[in-house]
Amino acid sequence: MNPAEETGSWKGYENLEYLFVFGASTSDVGYRHGRSPQPTKEQPLGIEYPGETWTERNEANWVGHLINQYTHSNPVVYNYAVGGHTLKGYAEQILKGFLDGTGDENSGVGWTAENSLFVSSIGGNDLANPDLDIVSCMTEIFELQYKLYEGGARNFVIFNVAPLPPPGDNVTEFTRHMLSKREEKCGEWNVMLPPFIDDFTAAYPDSTMFLFDVYSHTKKMQQDPTSYGFSEAAGRMYDQEMYIDNIHPSSKAHKHIAWHLGSFLSGKEMDRDKEEKYDRRPLEERHPSFGERIKATLHGGRNLGVQPLPL
Fold this sequence. Notes:
Layout: E1 18-23, H1 62-69, E2 76-79, H2 87-102, E3 116-121, H3 134-150, E4 155-159, H4 173-203, E5 208-212, H5 214-223, H6 251-266, H7 290-298
Parallel strand pairs: 1-2, 1-3, 3-4, 4-5
């Protein structure tokens, strides 16, 4: 299905007013339902832009880049994603965070089936389990999409799972083996996802569900980093260009993904250098990112200038 075409409740990307995001660390901006302020047009994340992300300090992830440069409208974002969450946490985001909160008809939030988009990016943490039953996971994910549908959602985007960056030469054979098994599972997950999407839209023809192929876009960056403005050495764990650690992409990598998503939903390529909408506080006034706090924890806070996470 072409996102540029209006079908059913999908009135086109240019008419988007409410963006609901569910997932894990790559989508997490630090917004916490029930504790963070309500998102507004002036502060669309509910917290100060770009939030507290799992990338560099004071830098946006794909959610921030998307609303800052790669939307035609000015949507507000209800972001329930939490770093580290697996499918169990994802279910809580939907059932307790959204359906018992913003999704309740008495919440006073003005989203409708036509002006909203529900984005899910989940599965990466689950795939760390080599014995994962992917069919059971897919079944649960789409049962949760039905719960959203019951709650009034009609427009959905599902990310497939991105590849991890290749390791350097100094990893153990065991680690290399486990990473290889994870990538095999990732391939199985991504092959299995499209038929579930087809079945869902066939069962609920008044819904629109798009598959965003973050896997392919990420793989291209890893294999041809210079075409994306990185050095030839980028695209590996801890390269400090495309990845800030062994898992999490840099803000620059997130920006490429946001551009691809915005272009996909628009049905045509967007201007990569589109004017930014939101200002950021000076770096010295901001809290450290989750990524920096993880590093501080691993190194006891030494020489990093940030407080470790409480363990």
